[in-house]
Amino acid sequence: MATRLPAVDAVLIGFGWTGAIMAQELTEAGLNVLALERGEWRDTPTDFAPTFAQDELRYYWRHELFQRLNHDTLTIRNKASETALPMRRLGSFLLGSGVGGAGVHWNGQVWRFLPSDLKARSHNLERYGKKAVPDDMTIQDYGVSYEDLEPYYDKFEYLCGVSGKAGNLKGVIQAGGDPFEGPRAREYPNPPLDMPYAPTLFGQAAAGLGRHPFPHPAANMSRPYTNPLGVQLGACTYCGFCEKYACGNYSKASAQTTILPVLMRKKNFTLKTNSEVVKINLSADGKTATGVTYIDDKGQEFEQPAELVVLSAYILHNVRLLLLSGIGKPYDPATGEGVVGRNYAYQITSSVNVFFDDKILNPFVGAGALGTIVNDFNGDNFDHSGLGFIGGGYVGLLQTGARPIETHNTPDGVPKWGAAWKAALARDYLKTTTISTHGAVMSHRGNYLDLDPTYKDALGRPLLRMTFDFTDNEHKMSDYLTDRAAEIGRAMGGREIKVNYRKGSWDVVPYQTTHNTGGAIMGDDPRTSFTNRYLQSWDVPNLFVLGATAFPQNAGYNPTGTVAALAYHAADAIKTRYLKAPHQSLVQA
Amino acid sequence: MARRPITFMLAALSAAAVVTYPASPGAQQAPAADPPVETQQVAYGRALAVIGDCEGCHDRPGGPPLAGGLPLNTPFGVIYSANITPDRETGIGTWTADDFWNALHRGVRANGSKLYPAFPYPYFTHVTREESDALYAYFRTVAPVSYRPPANKLPFPFNIRFLVTFWNMLNFKEDTAPTTGPTRGEHIVRGLGHCGACHTPKTLLGGDKTGHELEGGKLDNWFAPALTGDVRAGLGAWPAAAIAEYLKTGRNAHANASGPMGDVVAHSTSQMSGADVAAIATYLKSQTARLEPTPPATLDPKVMASGQAIYVDQCAACHAVDGKAAPTYFPPLPGAAVTQSRDPTTVIRFILSGTQTVATDARPTPLSMPSFAWKLDDAQVAAVATYVRNSWGNSAPAVSPGDVARLRRKVAAKPVQKPSARI
Description:
The complex is a heterodimer. Chain A is about 20% helix and about 20% strand. Chain A is α/β, with parallel strands linked by helices. In chain A, strands 1, 2, 3, 11, 12, 13, 14 and 24 form an 8-stranded mixed sheet that branches. A 6-stranded antiparallel sheet of chain A has the order 8-17-18-19-16-22, with helices on one face. In chain A, strands 5-4-21-20 form a 4-stranded mixed sheet, with helices on one face. The model of chain A has no long low-confidence stretch (mean pLDDT about 95). Chain B has 3 domains: about 40-170; about 185-285; about 300-410, Cytochrome c-like domain (Cytochrome Bc1 Complex, Chain D, domain 2, Orthogonal Bundle), CATH 1.10.760. In chain B, strands 1-2 form a two-stranded antiparallel sheet. In chain B, a hairpin with a 2-residue loop joins β1 (about 70-75) and β2 (about 75-80). Chain B is globular, with a radius of gyration of 22 Å.
């Protein structure tokens, strides 16, 4: 029997980036806010101090910061005709756990989507005609424009102290920045990070080919920074342990290093950790969320009433909790009807290794978003006529730190083990670098999320089932990007290159990106979207669902900037409009 | 939308789940009901209680405000702070304003017995009667709490309160006509602020060393640096505005407040008025340089080389290879008094236990230094401490492995973080 607790104004389910952003905004508006986080409390001095944070075996190979799959995992298959199996170990994406969520172990790559990314359907139809979007490609417009989101992108970049160089200030193209980006109101808060040798060589080679290289925008501090909340971040030391690791030096933006010092001092905010929400409770008519039910680490069950419910967990958990709570119509790939689980998407990556004989590149010097990028082949920045695909991605040389257990690139023809492998690795480690491509995945009718009919978690609830594969569109696009990367790789002038195309079906084993999207998407039509443009549920107006869950399809950029901008956009609507007329839909369908 | 306050009853219901932020004093306190309108005298008393840092000693961790029970480690044993809420049984609910004045002014309790000078009446004797009455009026408004602190752990003969009479004869001089002068700063520093309780060296009996006011003192395995005008060991290099900034925000271009001074900043100085911290700064800047310059240390080049190697490997990520760090974020080491004090206790302790910059409203980030106790042995800590005490123009006596071992035994009980893996 659940213990019923006193009501709160707002309850947040999950306390990563979006939970912290929403808690900060709602407490500013005077609400009493409770955040429920199923994982542990985590903070810099106690959990990732610089005396032990850079431990490759502990954190990457043994997954210490990631979700505990013996408690809860998901089942995976490539297509509906297969039987999905539960994953004991994840590789392709690395789910977070605990306070700060996956934002603790991210790289700090902060991007804005292109204006055309946010209207992928109408834009491509308009430019390339009806044939460009096949029937089974279920892409949609977001329902918000780049102009709508610009102030919120800006707010997040200043919160995080992003290091970068603007390429488009109020429509005026800036030398040294990304000329393809949408117009921004002002420069980044910090200058770019110092550029190491390999990304510099990449930039020179790319420019020689007529591309437009610029420094990757990074939530790794190029200098000490105090954000608009008064929170202080230290300068990055280029230690090379961002991706898959937490930062011990206060140099990578996370909830801990940007918001929590202010939020945790507030009297009208409470955080409960080790508290897993098992259900969003609904009124008898199903039109109001009355609160949530959660279980603490001792197995005790609590009912937490709330006026406003914000689902701010990772996208896979958001979708699963909606399905488990019976909110919204589950998606059926046979009919194409239903909205929960619909339009799950991902990203597609590939790489090109460049081996030098005469250049010491010191690849261990690194930061999560340290590198040089070209966006000439991202989104619709290039003419897709006759290419047979839509979408694109960035090509870049990111020097994230060549951690020794993980990093052992050897040229074609070298054995995979033994004395010859060791000799090649010793010869090449300091003289090898890698160009990567990071491409969009469109949404398709057969890629979706639902509840697994067989496998259950530690609490006896069905696991989430993921049905996903790359389609021809993604492979054609990725191969095209990889060829462009190889051109730059050759122009860098090394001894040889090795081209690693992404071939075949999606495979959960090798790490790719933790950029899962969709499943409860935003849009203009309740028949094809779960939320309106403010991330408010069409069916249950006092429920908001944050995160990349809202993306109708994925773009060629890392998602966190857009995830945060959408959260701020929703928070602003709640503060300025929803609280004046609670339980009302902000958009009339 | 209905606005209902969350009560922190939730904490009790769901066990260990509610998170208190490390440097967020009082974060778990229930939001107070609308307080009754304060009289001018009560408001004055509340401000004086901030200046006196009453909560610094009379709040125990997690305990209700001013209910006492905090263990104070004195050289003579453990003394628990008193419950000064107006509870009639366990607090000071039966005390009159005269009783309160006698305690503050003379160190005598309502029942006539002597207070131990862990209660800093040698400073509070400079408090005026008007101020005492305001403090008394404020304490009457605090929620009464029934709580009896544990008995003091004082060995014979220190457990005989009567002996305080003799202590007083040697160490205590009653201010027979306290005034608010000569300056506001001096009145605070030498009176209610009781800065010398930590910052003035002590005699064997624990009294202030006469003639050595604010020259730095050792207490409870910390060394509080001198507040004199000395450039190396004191505040000589700090402009008055920097002192005020430190007291108000917990950091400035020279140092970050942490450890016991962090608590003082959190409970007291950051909540004082701007005029009061400025007055303190002005008074402290009037202190002359008077400590003997430390003779150039004779240093073992092998120890310095070892210390430098450890420093570059372990410390430079935050403090930078040149020691200049990032002022107001991570404190610079060149010129730092904590680094160069004649007594190295605090610098050794920082390395062993780590430390956390105080979070204030102006500067909410509790920037932290990790513990190296599990990572560096005594000789390594001694080498790196000696290195930072004697690099970039710094000069101070070398630290021996024995110094580190002694302190490690006393403070190593509770590491700041968990270095071991979950698996």
